[in-house]
Structures are given as C-alpha cells and as structure tokens.
Amino acid sequence: DPYAQLLLEAMKQSGCTVFNDRHFSCENCDGCVSGGFDSATSQIVLCQNNIRQQSHMNRVVTHELIHAFDHCRAHVDWFKNVKHLACSEVRAANLSGDCTLMNEIARFKFGLKGHHQTCVRDRAIRSILAVRKVSKETAEKAVDEVFDACFNDLEPFGRIPHSKTDAKRAYRDFKNRDRYNANL
User: Fold this and answer.
1) Helix runs in the chain, H state only
2) CB distance 125 to 115 below 8 Å
3) CA distance to 6, 32, 148, per residue, from 127 (Å)
4) d(Cα 110, Cα 140) in Å, to the nearest integer?
5) Res 90: pLDDT
6) Is residue 77 within 8 Å of residue 57, measured between CB atoms?
7) How far apart are alpha carbons 7 and 107 in whole angstroms?
C-alpha cells in the first residue's frame, strides 16, 4: 500500500524503523474499534475481529501509522494533553483516506463545500471519544483549537492523498525529496 510505504520510509528516515513482527499486533477487540496505536510499546494494534476487507485494513494501518509517525517525530503527550491527541487525530483523518469521497458516500455522508474538513473534524472528535474519557465538548474544543495548524500539517505526504494514485505520487516525491534539495 503506497500510504503505508511512505509512512514506513518516513519513520525510518526519522530514526524509528518499524519491524512487522515487533510493531504490529493482530488482536480481538471490544466494540467496533478497528485499531489503535499503543504509545507505551510503540505498537499498532489491528482488530482482526472488526476488519473484514483489505481496503479497510489499509486505511486502519495508515491511520495508526500516522499516529506512530507523530509519536516518532514529536514529543506527543498522548495521555495528559488532549490537544496533542486531537492534532494527531486530525492529521490521521486528513491523510489516511478516512475522508475520501468514496468512503463518505459509503457512509451516506456527502456534501459539496468544505465537506472534507467537516469529515476530518467529525472523525477526529469521534476518535478522541473512543480512546479517552472526556466529554464531547472537551473533544470538540481540543479539535477546534488545533484544527487549522494540524489540518495543514501534511508531513510526510506533502499533500492530502485523495486516492492511491495521489499516495503513489506523494511517495515518489518523498523518495526524491533529498535528491531535489541536494541540487539547490
């Protein structure tokens, strides 16, 4: 998957090499959660009982790898600072493909103007509420306070990948980034 390839390469370049047998775990999970990132172990958990399609698994892996990338490159306080969590959730919803037009149509949610931003905001709030015992108002406030900065943080993609083609292009650009900068 080009999304995962780019994130794994970016993490490696940031000094956080990911090993499949160490950093990924397939488990049965409660509720309708599809996956998660455990910052204490730097491990991505895939909920095998709630993922039924390859495309869904690809999105979950990408979403959780964005959290792992954020954990690698920044000093994220996942448990004490809800704004840190909110920022990573905004980035994950924005960059993972969670809010593509096709996914939103499948959810019977679609609009025209500003729909991508609305989807990212709503999914970030939903994700915070799924992992932290905070009020909806607290989650909404945290997302609203960090939204603009975190929505516009497109690392390591450099763009919002709306399709696998976009993700492949972003991966190609990422691999060539150093070569381009070396010629400046």
Assistant:
1) 2-13, 20-23, 54-73, 82-95, 101-106, 115-131, 136-151, 164-182
2) no
3) 23, 12, 18
4) 21
5) 97
6) no
7) 26
Using only C-alpha atoms, the chain has a radius of gyration, in whole angstroms, of 16
Residues 172/178/3/127 CA torsion (nearest 10 deg): -150
pLDDT tens digits for 43-54? 999 999 999 889
What is the pTM (predicted TM-score) of this model? Answer: 0.89
SS3 call for 88: helix
Mark whether 64 is an active-site residue. yes
Query: Domain map of the chain by residue range?
Result: 2-156
Cα gap 18→177, rounded to integer Å: 21
Sign of the alpha-carbon torsion through 25, 106, 67, 129: negative
Tokens of residue 42, six digits:
């730097």
Q: pLDDT (tens digit, 9 = 90+) per residue, 80-101? A: 999 999 999 999 999 998 786 6
What secondary structure does DSSP assign to 6-34, as a single string?
HHHHHHHHTT----HHHHEEEE--STT--
Say which of 64, 89, 140, 155 is annotated catalytic: 64
